[in-house]
Amino acid sequence: MKQFFTIFKFELTGYLKNKLFIALTVIMVLGIAGLLSFPRLTVIMKDNNIELPSSEDEKTKICFCNSSELPTEVLKQAYTATFSEEYEVTFKDTDKDLEASVKDGTFDSAVIIETPTSFKYVVDTVDMYNTEAQQVSLVLLNVHRYVLMSEKGMNEEEIAAVLDSNIDYDTVVTGKDQTESFLYTYAIIMILYMVLLIYGQFVSNGVAAEKSSRAMEVLITSAKSMNLMFGKVLGAGFAGLMQLVIILATAFGFYQLNEEYVDNEIISSIFNMPGSVFAWTVLFFILGYFMYAFMYGAAGSLATRTEDLNTLVMPITLLYMAAFMLCIFGMTSGGVDDLPFKICTYLPTFAPMIAFVRICMGDIKTYEIIISIVIQVLSIGALGVACAKIYRAGVMMYGNTPKPKDIIKILKMKD
Amino acid sequence: MLLEVKDITKSFGEKQVLKGVSFSAESGSALGLLGRNGAGKTTTIRIIMQLFSPNSGSVLIDGKPVDLKSVNIGYMPEERGLYPKKKVIEQLIFFGELRGLSKSEAKANAKKLLNRLHMEEYENVKLSTLSKGNQQKIQLVATLVSDPDIVILDEPFSGLDPVNAILLKDVVRELISDGKIVIFSSHQMNYIEEFCDNIVILNEGKISVSGNIKEIKRSYTNNKVAIETEDKEEALKLFMAENCVKTTELTDSGILVELVEWSEIKDIMSVLSDSKINVQSVSMYEPTLNDIFVDYTDSAVEEVQS
Prior knowledge:
The complex is a heterodimer of chains A (415) and B (306). With 415 residues, chain A is α/β, with parallel strands linked by helices. Helix content of chain A is 69%, strand content 6%. Chain A is elongated. In chain B, helix 2 (88-98) crosses helix 3 (103-116) and helix 2 runs parallel beside helix 4. Chain B folds into two domains: 2-218, Rossmann fold, CATH 3.40.50; 221-286, Alpha-Beta Plaits. At the A-B interface, helix 1 and helix 8 of A face helix 2 and helix 4 of B.
């Protein structure tokens, strides 16, 4: 046990003194702090009358052209009412050269109304959040309805009453509200994915470096391979956990400080996650980390040169990516409680991520969580022993990169 | 303390690396473990260190199976390597602690050994900044930092300049007089002859010869007579025709004559006295360890000849 702690301490201080590790942590902390303080800084700058580049004089230019039988006057009125606040609205009688003037930048976009129910939308580049076409179509629909209704002899007020009518509804969520949990689950899965991958690679690189510098010869004759493996994995894991906690704490701290200035719903919904999610994050980080770090360590021990490492690590990374992709797929499709996900809750290499996603977004039963965690803990124990065995044999194997059958042979060996 | 290796065998897959190896070593003495590349030296050492367990046979200390908790073994591998990016003292303390020392003990031992090897000024530098010879000295400190009862040194002299080699020789002598068991694995026979009372020559997983060096030399009957003379060619011609002579060869200072029977030395003497050759001396040829090594690892000879 003393030996284990010696190795653990040596590895941990190794990470904490590592310049890359420190730089990575500092950069992430500064980045998060900066991002979350940004809205507040903008407000402060405004208060101090510091001129910020304003978008007032840079209105987007939109051009309308009517070639349908709808009355142009009504269209003009309707579109000016909707767009004039944010847009510089122009009306043209002909659609001649309209596409060219969008291309050369005279207008940012152009709308040619072809029939009462169809129009052509001309734009140079469309960004993700462009809703112009929807707005145009909504206005056109109203104009079309307005014209139809006035033809039927309805007066303005009646028409307005019909067009303005709204339907109210309330949603009662009996299970999990996926719209609310989606963002923070997504954010955490991303962070987990990154941190686990980085630390898994740290472990395999560390082992491979020891082997290629031949420090291994002395290590393996000075300490038990089980202690070496667990010491290394736990040392790196603890460093990773510390980093994760520092990053999350910074994020929450700065969010608290700047809460009133942050009016972004996406960010708010991430930080308003339930506290239990935090606890689950730490638990599944630990489980997922061990699951993969042992495999990464064993892979590192099999590499003779650091160049071989990539090939050896690839299957593990692919396995891990598969779990990640499945999570994202399940989250976006909303089917996290479908059968494939239920099965994956019990598959050791998938479970850490899938179980977490199902807890956050799905309708997982308590007994499912318990079984999943028990399976994970048991397989981590088995993996730890198997990987220590591969490690012990692997570190003394030089030369060719071992094939899967060689690895099976190692596992079958008695010692 | 008595270290006994008893009839160990070890196979890796199809290949049998050790085919029944036995030897013993006692406190306050050095044992030379010799053999060509691939003869099984490193495997034998790793079995002593319990990295591998033998297929059969055992390793005993004072008649009991080795318990690494109570017996401290320091091993300096042939492939040197420590942490290149870490400070010297940090890793020395780490290795000391790994082998059961407290931090302060490890630090004190490391400092003492660094002083002994005139390396104290490099205590706080990164290992990779040191020269090869100095790195090797750090490796020796890492081996000895836990004050081991058994010290196994694999090619300890390779890469050392003559001054450092003398320093290392002194350290090894101190180890032996401190009552440690020192096991030497080397190809440099002169160092083996200097320190080791006993040797074991391994060849293809078997022991070709083992025992006290002097006795081995004495019993190594090669029936060779060294004749020191300036008329080498004349002497060579003279003996080539003799029936009692098996082989002849030229040396730097004269010729070497191998007899069929040692008793025929009388004939040689009479032939010499009858001839006009000017002879400085006639002596029994004393084999060097190198001769014995090459002779016993006979496949080496075959390989060189073919």
